[in-house]
Amino acid sequence: MGLSLILAEKPSQAKAYSEAFNVEKRTKHYIEVKPDKAFPNGAIITWAIGHLVELNPPQFYDEKYKKWDLANLPIVPKTFSYSVSKDKKEHYNEVEKLLKNAKELVIASDIDREGEAISRLIFQQAKVTNKPIKRLWINSLENDEVRKGMENLRDGKETYNFFLEAQARQKSDWLVGMNLSPLFTLPLQQRGYNGSLSIGRVQSPTVYLIYQRQNEIENFVSKPFFQIEGEFTVKNGSYKGMADVKEEARETVQALLDKHDITGKDQGIIQSVDKKEKRQKSPKLHSLSSLQSAANKKWKYSPKAVLDIVQKLYDKKILSYPRTDSHFITESEFHYLKENLNGYQQILNNVFTPLSLTPNKRYVDGSKVEEHYAIIPTKAIPNESIMAGLSTEEKNIYHEIVAVTLGMFHGDYIFEETTIMTNVKGLPFKSTGKTEKEKGWHSLFPVNADKKDKDTVLPTVSKNEQATGIIGIKEGMTQPPKPYTEGQLINMMKTCGKYVEDDKDVEILKDVEGLGTEATRSSIIEKIKQQNYIDVKKNIVSVTDKGKILCEAIDGTLLSSPSMTAKWESYLKKIGEGQGSQEKFLEQITAFINKMISEVPTQLNVPSIAKKIQDQQQSNGISKCPSCQNGFIIEKKTSKGKFYGCSCYKEGCKVTFPAKMAGKTLGKTIIKSLSTKGKTNKIKGFKSKKGKDFEAALKLDSEFNIEFDFS
């Protein structure tokens, strides 16, 4: 009789599960655990290694698809097929044997749509979907949570629609990438573009949003503006105030001063002193996005780095599941946090008397927790040895989560806001300041010593008190929008609805939280970095020349707008809820691709794209072409290898240089010397036809061909 087979997503996860049981035996491919309450006959724990099973490439369906050709579009398989990754074949074969011998299957991969797909595709490939399937659904890898989850497995049917949604995502992204990448690349290459474009359902509109911001900055025209500022002196000190004036012309402001007979050194009177006590509640518990944004702001960690760090802390059983979009927990989590309050305070070395030990709806609301609750510390409080073993980055993230969680139990941050209105000859000046009264939850977070205190402290004044003022015109310049930091890309993707004009699309984007999902946004950002669409320097994001060409190419199409993603994400969500069909969704995607195929080639023939291609050629160019003097010598690649040629090939310039000559690789420095000087210095490393080494200079003949110069 077969045992229950538990399929984890990765080896570390399988190891964590096994630690909740008594282990019978360990092998290279699985762990066997002894019988217990959850599995009376025992169980086998095995694992995927990420995506063991993947969609096949186009050439699997037809060899003609191996080479990009517009005539072969669209590529739409009648039935999608999958294969096992070649480098994971050995492990998959062992997993397949275990699956076939099992009496029931337990999906224990990550508790999200992607995790569901990883397991289900392995079952599908192994042809074992007819067996009983259960689902493990837990938010912590602590031993007691694992045991509790294993003893209360969900029916696999409850989460099957998550698989259908994830699979629809995979197939649609495949269709968009495999069809639209050649559709945009090949016509651009015919126009002189040296490279290829990767088009993505989510990555393309993401790049375009960054491009829009960059255009706003580059096209911004800074203009002067003028205000009236007063520096006032009273009995107890001095302070500054501003009149409610902001004009583009200095003359207008001067006219106002003249109207009030203000000469520059004038007497004023305190018209009013208004003091208000204000309270600031502690921040909401962290979702993955809010944690990524906070960590980037504090330590400049990239979103991908934050996900990797928090995943490690989850694997170490000290943090809850990281890929969550929730800011709430249930009363169950609140109860254990309350019980362990002292332990968490010791971690931060910050002991305080909790203001309240009852759940607050701002943080604790089970009705707002769907699949996962917020990221919080687990019951497993790390000891000194474990904390010492954490990296600096891991400590920072762990402390951040603990501090935000403890904020629930702390008092409000209380401060007093003071507003002074000073009247100078009928012109009022406003001054505001802030005085801290109680630190409250602020005391949980370390103060950055380098950060200047921006709070203005005003002197004590009373109504009708005299104030001597130095009044003058203050000139300023309007400022462009700031470029995105890498951490701000997460929020940009979540809130991109503000760039959409259609009210329905705005609502849909709000509902699905913009572009991508909590689990995929950081990988999308990494992908557009790897594709060289964006560059990140000192945490500031800019669009590269390649990214600009992409954005010019997709400008005006649905690929440049979050609206398309809004509609797609909305329907994908319906599939996950059991209210939509994969077939209908893929029909819509196919119709969209066919529309693009009929429209895109003509749309790409515009001057702005030609200009961007020329800019790219110039920036990538090794030197000016020695023949036509208009184009640039650039590196080119073909199926036969690399060579150098003029960027004005389409305009008739046929100059080309080989990348190798007599066994010697000709680098860009050599090509630049030939193009600019017509010759090089003596070069070593050439080989004759008889295999003998020799050295020689190179020079260009009258037809711009390279020849040896032995003189």
Automatic annotation (TrEMBL):
It comes from Scopulibacillus darangshiensis. The keyword Chaperone does not apply. Pfam families: Topoisom_bac (PF01131), Toprim (PF01751), Toprim_Crpt (PF13342). PROSITE patterns: TOPO_IA_1 (PS00396), TOPO_IA_2 (PS52039), TOPRIM (PS50880). Coiled coil: none annotated. Its EC number is 5.6.2.1. GO terms for molecular function: DNA binding; DNA topoisomerase type I (single strand cut, ATP-independent) activity; metal ion binding. This is DNA topoisomerase. PANTHER family: DNA TOPOISOMERASE 3-ALPHA, PROKARYOTIC DNA TOPOISOMERASE. Belongs to the type IA topoisomerase family. Keywords: DNA-binding, Isomerase, Magnesium, Metal-binding, Topoisomerase. GO terms for cellular component: cytoplasmic replication fork. It is an enzyme of class 5 (isomerase). Residues 3-143 form the Toprim domain. SUPFAM superfamilies: Prokaryotic type I DNA topoisomerase. GO terms for biological process: DNA recombination; DNA repair; DNA topological change. Gene3D superfamilies: 3.40.50.140, Topoisomerase I, domain 2, Topoisomerase I, domain 3, Topoisomerase I, domain 4.
